[in-house]
Amino acid sequence: MEIRPLTDDYAVSPQIAPEDVPAIVEAGFTTLVCNRPDGEIPPEVQAEAIRKAAEAAGLRFVLNPVIGGAITMENIRAQATAIQQSEGPLLAYCASGNRSSIVWALAHAGQRPTDELIAIPARHGYGLEPFRATIDQLAQG
Fold first, then answer.
1. Count of structural domains, the chain
2. C-beta of residue 75 within 8 angstroms of C-beta of residue 64
3. Taking 90 as the threshold, does the pLDDT of residue 1 lie above it?
4. Nearest-angstrom CA–CA distance, 105 and 64
5. Model pTM?
6. What is the CATH number of the domain that holds 29?
7. In Gene Ontology terms, what is one molecular function of this protein (predicted)?
């Protein structure tokens, strides 16, 4: 597991496993968001397995599966709600952390400059430049 902080209270990670949950708690996270659809992965790392481990460790667990190339407004709203309702740092994961970065940026459209929403994930190798127009459009309202 590699935790990649985008802000002080939001980080992304590639796919995690139930045995990663203690380290996530130790790192200070209070909310765990799964952005990976179960159809992409084997049962032992699907949402329900992670949910059980997360909730047993006292983490809030949010399921918001994001399909690559098909991000919906519901995905964006669900991510924004998870961020707003988190009572501490939030860790979101998917296959690589890219989709979790994209929905973070889209959820913050209009709250932060577009250049910043693209540059912050880029520090971790996530290329959000193709989403510039969408971020700008969402920022307009």
1. 1
2. yes
3. no
4. 15
5. 0.95
6. 3.90.190.10
7. hydrolase activity
Q: Which residue has the tokens 């590639």?
A: 14
| Residue 112: half-sphere exposure toward Cβ, Cα within 13 Å | 14
pLDDT of 141 above 80: no
**Domain that includes residue 135, residue range:** 4-140
- Measured in residues, the chain has a length of 141
> DSSP string spanning the chain?
---EEEETTEEEES---GGGHHHHHHTT--EEEE-S-GGGS-GGGSHHHHHHHHHHTT-EEEE----TT---HHHHHHHHHHHHH-SS-EEEE-SSSHHHHHHHHHHTBTTB-HHHHHHHHHTTT---GGGHHHHHHHHH-
54-97 per-position pLDDT tens digit: 999 999 999 999 998 899 999 999 999 999 999 999 999 999 99
